[in-house]
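Can't paste images in this forum, so I'm doing it all in text. The chain is below; anyone willing to post the predicted structure tokens underneath?
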Amino acid sequence: MDRNNIERELMETIREVQEMSGHAPATVDHNTCPINDLEHFDSLRGVETTCLLSMKLKCKFKSPKGDINVFVSKDGRRALNVGEIVDRLVELCE
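Text version of the structure:
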């Protein structure tokens, strides 16, 4: 899967989810940290966005633990920016 394509689709999906949730269109770039920078973007919205992105990319993000929230670090302690999220998606994409 092409990294640039994943990043473009990720940013588009984040904007779509924000708008579907009733929030103003968000400006999203490589350095945006959705959980910290976007209104009401929490870990649940991260899971929803990951699922939608998976469908768009026709790519299953695999994990032995079940649902993946790529918007936080593997240990769940730190919110990630778009560039870091793309790194995780590239790693997880089948």
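Residues 6 and 27 are 17 Å apart (CA to CA). The first helix runs from residue 3 to 20.
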